[in-house]
Amino acid sequence: MSAIARSVRPFASRVLSQKLPLAAACRVSPATAFPRGSVRNFSQSPFMELKKYTESHEWIELAADGKTAKVGITEYAAHSLGDVVFVELPEVDAEVSAGEPVGAVESVKSASDVNSPVSGKVINVNSILEDKAKFINESPEGDAWIAEIEVKDASELDNLLDAKAYKETLGDE
After folding, report:
1. The pTM is what?
2. From CA 118, how far away is CA 121, in angstroms rounded?
3. Which residue has the higher pLDDT, 48 or 9?
4. What distance in Å separates the CA atoms of residue 39 and residue 81, rounded to the nearest whole number?
5. 84 near 134, Cβ under 8 Å?
6. Better-scored residue on pLDDT, 123 or 19
7. Domains annotated on the chain, with CATH
8. pLDDT of 96-152, one tens digit each?
9. What angle do CA 87, 88, 94 make, to 5 degrees?
């Protein structure tokens, strides 16, 4: 039986290595290869609904626990500021009110306060920004958040803009 396998193996490898015209026609895009309904649509993610924006270009993302949220500046703000050279972080345990400064961002062009979108207590700061302020330019709405706040009243988030409404305000600027 091993003699048969040895004689068939070279032939099989040659056939399998050839590009057959039919092979290209049979290729299916990865999205259609999944069973219907199993492809995740990220725009429908519940976490996207928890991210809100202010007209002064800050964002806040409520955590799944509904009690804590991360705050940062938007991509538009980071781009407008240019190269960030310094980030002033808030003190941990500081009480903040909605619309009150929770930090500041300085760039080669200008400096700007970062206002808290909601009232609460600062429970954590992004210490990466102390040593690498320009990280804000790399990931302003991702890992370069400025502070984590324990939200006093989650209903304050209702007064903020969703992503679509925020983008509409950018058309004015």
Report:
1. 0.70
2. 10
3. 9
4. 37
5. yes
6. 123
7. 50-154 (2.40.50.100)
8. 999 999 999 999 989 999 999 999 999 999 999 999 999 999 999 999 999 999 999
9. 140
From CA 103, how far away is CA 114, in angstroms rounded? 5
Distance, CA of 70 to CA of 114 (rounded, Å): 13
* Vertex 152 angle, CA 149 and 153, to 5°: 120
Alpha-carbon span 56 to 46, nearest angstrom: 24
Strand 95-96, strand 101-107: pairing: unpaired
Q: Tell me: pLDDT of 17 over 80.
A: no
How does pLDDT run across 29-41, given as a tens digit for each residue? 444 444 444 444 4
Place of tokens 């929770």: 102
Hey, how many other C-beta atoms are within 10 angstroms of the C-beta on 90? 20
The residue whose two tokens read 């007209």 is: 55
Reference 106, options 89, 131, 87; nearest CA is: 87
